[in-house]
Amino acid sequence: MKYILVTGGVISGIGKGIIASSIGTILKSCGLRVTAIKIDPYINIDAGTFSPYEHGEVFVLNDGGEVDLDLGNYERFLDISLYKDNNITTGKIYQHVINKERHGDYLGKTVQVVPHITDAVQEWVMNQAKVPVDDDRKEPQICVIELGGTIGDIEGMPFVEAFRQFQFKAKRENFCNIHVSLVPQPNATGEQKTKPTQNSVRALRGLGLSPDLIVCRSAKPIEMAVKEKISMFCHVEPEQVIFIHDVSSTYRVPILLEEQGIIKYFKQRLNLPIDDQPSDLLMKWKKMADRYERLLKVCSIALVGKYTKLSDCYASVFKALEHSALAINHKLDLMYIDSTELEHSTEVENSVKYHQAWHKLCKADGILVPGGFGIRGTEGKLQAISWARTKKKPFLGVCLGMQLAVVEFARNCLNWKDANSTEFDPDTKNPVVIDMPEHNPGDMGGTMRLGKRRTVFKTQNSVLRKLYGDETFVEERHRHRYEVNPELTHCFEEKGLKFVGHDTEGNRMEIIELENHPYFVGVQFHPEFSSRPMKPSPPYLGLLLAATGTLNAYLQRGCKLSPRKNDSYSDLSDDSSPEKEFPISETS
Fold it and tell me: Is 143 an annotated catalytic residue?
């Protein structure tokens, strides 16, 4: 097993996750089996109880793990399925060690950070690195480990010490450290500054780790003189200094890394049995990145949510929309709308925001209402859903978005004016959305209906069933504590809102579709978590197709996108001829 540790310096949030994912993509393109682990030094057991403004979205895995959004990057880039134990937190490690202490495993000993906590980290990494994550169920050969935060953080010290010890246990030829650092460029001088990187590398070395590669992040391409300066003062060869500047899309990052000789370096440093040149997979990434930058046609989608101040709050939703837009040769114009601003206010400032928000909503080609928790902003979401339904705008509701679509239909089509979810009004006379007692025991963390579950289609006359390839069932990831009241569904179906998908027992409503509407779909699950750059999520693809007016043509063609000969992923040419309207191949 080869281990690649990715650490960060100067500031957090400079793209360690994308760089770790890109390194894994490059090695996978060389024919190696790659897995990934994310270490978060916070004491929380998992990310499930975070506000999205703390660390961005909560990403959900097949096994129900609520984890950091970087694991979503790993899955999308590497096309793998990870597990909750691929996300290590300080809370998990301490809980593991304390449980062993209570069990008597350390009987007679004083339990300390060194060696007990550091040993637990190393054992966890070695055990989890062996778990298969590909469809072939073979043991991985490379484990990319991302250490969250920055070097010098007091909460990350035990993990740094664990890897200081681990580099000797794994042996030099099996362990490599990549340090990602910021090279700022103050506007006052316009000069790219290397001192923060020098200080960060010095701090890393002082803790016992020496970087094998220094990846410098910057807003603009870095000059050769800066590279030579970093090489000299950080005690590495010039070819061990890699530059990644801000690019138009993250698809470009693996290409930048490969162009700077990273494959040759890894081959020599880790003694890997690979060729110097990547396989066709990386070439497909390059073509995809090239085509992304050449797209001319635009499709605008209004995302109506309550966490719109930080784009990471809807990272997977954005990526799923982007994958689908790219598949149909369109550039995505995603307009974030704060749902509270759609609610009428008499205040002058809020009134301006109110009109601006409605202007965005009205000009959008399609409307998306994602998941969320809490009553704030729900009335604005209901207004957006009503607009989409009455004006026949393509609409997709995910999780809470589907539940609110049911509430809106009950109020305005069934004339149940007080219809609501018991999450927002426990005493409503028409509880069209109710809680699931077995998933609401009082504890907040890890108690929802989580992970991959099966949804069975009730009828063949379903748009979503056709988009999924006419399968009898699909398996998607869930994260919810409330559901549509199954006792009232017959009232909705009589008026045209069909519940076309349910769970295997037939008790839980999973998919809604509205009759006589271009595309009005709601799903209880989160299909964005399973979307991949070359395998877009069917519900999101349907929204983009409907928003561009091509859904009916797509369905008439048997839901198959135009294939390209000898290409198992995409036709990545920029051919605008009719037969190339849909670039992804049938096998995708």
Answer: no
Cα 22–26–29 angle (5° rounding)? 135
List the catalytic residue out of 143, 423, 526, 559: 526
Other beta carbons within 10 angstroms of residue 391's beta carbon come to 11
CB 18 within 8 A of CB 71: no
Confidence of residue 319 (pLDDT cuts 50, 70, 90): very high
Peptide bond into 115 cis (omega under 30): yes
Q: Catalytic pick from 234, 399, 423, 480?
A: 399
User: What is the distance, to the nearest Å, from the Cα of residue 549 to the centroid of all Cα atoms in its chain?
Assistant: 27
Hunting for tokens 């770790």 — which residue is that? Answer: 20
Is pLDDT of 573 > 50? no
> Rounded CA gap, 570 and 588, in Å?
8
Structural tokens at position 306: 């309550």
Q: For the residues 349-365, what does the mean pLDDT come to?
A: 87
Q: Which residues pair with 216 in a beta bridge?
A: 181, 243
Q: Is 399 a catalytic residue?
A: yes
Measured CA to CA, the distance from residue 364 to residue 34 in angstroms comes to 40
561: its two tokens = 């996108």
Q: What domains are there in the chain, each with its CATH number? A: 2-290 (3.40.50.300), 296-556 (3.40.50.880), 561-588 (no CATH)
Q: In what order do the strands lie in the sheet with 395-398?
A: 331-338, 298-305, 366-369, 395-398, 520-523, 509-514, 497-502, 449-457, 473-480
Alpha-carbon span 195 to 296, nearest angstrom: 41
Mean pLDDT of the chain: 89
Q: What is the dihedral of CA 381, 329, 478, 308, to 10 degrees?
A: -40
Q: Are 305 and 370 in contact (CB under 8 A)?
A: yes
**How far apart, in whole angstroms, are the C-alpha atoms of residue 59 and residue 56?**
9
165 neighbors 23 (Cβ within 8 angstroms)? no
Name residue 179's beta-bridge partners.
7, 214
CA distance 327 to 518: 20
Catalytic annotation, pick one of 57, 343, 528, 559:
528
Coil/strand/helix, residue 383: helix
Whether residue 193 contacts residue 185, with contact meaning beta carbons closer than 8 Å, is answered with: yes
Would you place residue 339 in the very low, low, confident or very high pLDDT band (cuts 50, 70, 90)?
Answer: very high
Q: pLDDT of 69-116, one tens digit each?
A: 999 999 999 999 999 999 999 999 999 999 999 999 998 899 999 999
For the whole model, what pTM was predicted? 0.90
Residue 567 CA to residue 586 CA, distance in Å, equals 10
Is residue 92 within 8 A of residue 83, CB to CB? The reply is no
The first and second tokens of residue 49, run together, are 């109880």
For residue 337, give both structure tokens: 């709308």
Q: Which residues contact 310 (CB under 8 A, 6 or more apart)?
A: 52, 53, 56
Active site residue 559: no
Using the predicted structure, report yes or no on whether residue 575 has a pLDDT greater than 50.
Answer: no
Model pLDDT for residues 115-169, shown as the tens digit of each residue = 999 999 999 999 999 999 998 899 999 999 999 999 989 999 999 999 999 999 9
- pLDDT bin (cut points 50, 70, 90) of residue 444 is low
Mean pLDDT of 337-359: 81
